[in-house]
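re: that chain from earlier
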Amino acid sequence: MYIFNTLTVLPKLPKNIEGLDKIANNLWWTWNTEYLELFKLIDKDLWNRIDKNPIKFMKLVSQEKLEIASNDKEFVAKYEKVKNDFNSYMDSKNTYYNKNYGKDKCIAYFSAEYGLDETMPIYSGGLGILSGDHLKSSSDLGIPLVAVGMLYKEGYFTQKIDGYGNQLTSYVKVDIDNMPIFEIKDENEEPIFIKVEIDNKEIYCKLYEVQVGRIRLILLDTDNDKNTEYRELTHRLYGGDKVTRIAQEIVLGIGGVRALKKLGYEPDVYHMNEGHSAFLILECIRNIMKEKQVSFNVAKEIVISKTAFTTHTAVPAGIDIFDIELIKRMFSQLPEEFGITEEEFLGFGMTKTDTYRKSFNMGYFALKFSGKRNGVSKLHGKVSRELFKEVWPNTSENEVPITHVTNGVHTCTWLAPGMKKLLNEYLKPFWQEELHKDSVWKEVYNIPNEVLSKTHREIKKKLIREIKKNIKNRYTRNYESYEEINETLESLKETDLIIGFARRFATYKRATMIFEDLERLTNLLNDETKPVKLVFAGKAHPADLQGQELIKRIQEIAKMPQFKGKILLLENYNMAISRYLISGVDVWLNTPRRPYEASGTSGQKAAVNAAVNFSVLDGWWEEGYNGKNGFTIGTQDTYSSNEEQDKADSDDIYDKLEYEIIPEFFERDENGISEKWINRMKETMATNSGKYSANRMLIDYLNDIYMPLSTYGEKYFNNLEKVLEFRKFKKIAKNVWDSIIITNLSESNVKISAGEKQKVVAEVNFGNVKKEHAKVEAYVVKIINGTEIVKVNSTELKEIAETENGRYVYEGEIEMNDGGNYAYTFRVVPKHEMLINEQDLDLAKWLIKE
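^ sequence. v structure.
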């Protein structure tokens, strides 16, 4: 047998286009698709053959093709423009962040997954896509952010659907050599590693990096020759058992902080995107204790002031929970190292009402050690306050210190190239720099209806080609006949009303709700004068058998004679298919069981492409819907059972389709254009694109979370004396707050007019509490239906007198702007300049009956 040595020969770029390589190594191209057009011009066949992967293309393109391109004046001119755009973007100091803040800060963003491009399958779904969009918009805005994640060598699973609708899963090893992922090396060109301790064993993590525009993403990988155990930790996203899961989270959290430190980063703010990275808290505390030579409790205060936590779940099942024995096993040395008891340590992941102490809740842990906490829509903020209220048992639910930042999408990643070209023509110059502003999108109303209609139909044709390709491949693999394939696909046209449903197949998303009444659905889908198609796509987690049954049900119905060619199921849903769907459908269907959809960004992506949303009023859509920019499903009512809610919601779907959506879509003039529908498309795009852009989301994070935390840290928590004083204040407050006594000096049963102010007076005996550390408030509630109590506001009162017996009189005015039954009381809450949230101490002394 002959032995051959291998070598790789890379094409040599001609000097006048040598910058192609540099741009290919930066994911800037994922949202600047003009750059990708250059590859198509060099070798269209190769470009399509290698799934439009720039890195792979640069390795496989022939030298001859490169030489031809370099001698083509038109190509070189296009290349020069792209190169100049890239360099200008990367070098610009005129960013939103610099213009509005300009402070030299560092924000560290941690996420278990990142959806950056379909050529990098290290994501599973919505959380990863959001993380990817977070990085891209941070880059666009010039935010000084560094990101941390994990390099999954097998990524998330590839889905195939057999002829019976069974989901078949396989894992394909990620080809790092053909991705813009690079080893991080030291000054001696040696790979950089960090160590973490897992189950009392040292595990080495190799560091890689990805450049996302201006943002650096650091990825950790345990699959390296230095390890004999736990190499599989970074094989699969969300794979393995609980031991694998906690080990992955140790790598992400603790290893991530060590990676940042090794690379010289000193973050001002740590942002945990979900609880997977919450163990970073432990490493941050350890570092501060060592560097500043302080106790655990002092280090804890400093870490809280630097940490933000975003929750994405609306149900307890969505939170990572580990068995107590597993926590004790993985962190056996930590309580002693921190100088605390094991019981105190385990209490980090429990609430005061936990009596059995069998599990460690990562959500509770992250909340307790964060200075800022948020849900991902207004409704989800409310749901989160209810879900996590036990962390603050003495605080009223609507004051639980969890706010919200509504999710958004990275506009140019999800905007179809054809639609982007149209916007470049009709929106103001440089609109992308201010795309978070609603005023920018008002220009959409000026696009001629026939132009928008034509643009959308061209995009729709691309979707139809993708649908046909996907289904033909699947049916051929499943040995379906040519006649069956042709019968399924022949009637699909760009003049049809195409309704899309694509997301993870989880039961609460109710993917099959539109099938509740098959007779009625048959009538809706079989009117030849008004052809309607339903397109489904999505994956179910390999362990989610109920989710997989939903896929089987869709396949079963799609095969029924009356639905053949009218209900279409696509396989292996990913970012590429998502882009075709959200830009090419006419209607985006969303049917979650309210209020379990935390945000739901797919509808935002559809809206920026002028696809009309048809959704339950859940997540972002409760904020986004204005009565004219889409359609709603159901009401905000509470039902006695899921079955009752499903029946009401499905009936509403059929009614809206039959009496509103289908008639409006097919009401066309002599040119085949539906004026009403096109105007609704414009309303959709104009009212949602700016408000639900990731740029707006990042600006909210800057204003409400990142910069306030950074300011607190800089102003107070960098000063050890102040931290020690604050720690003392908190300790004393918890011990003496109950010594406060409040006496009511106000009238009761008073009648006033709406908008009229009512004077209120109370007397306070502060007991052992320092007066300057207390805030006296009037707390106003509205009584609805005689039983439900809803907070209206709380008003700080002013001290007006001191009595002879050492008590203080406080006075103020309360105001109710609407009629109804109200009540008010008094309370005293902690007041300190270093309190990030008033309710953090979970202390309040109320007016009570003596």
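The chain has a mean pLDDT of 94.
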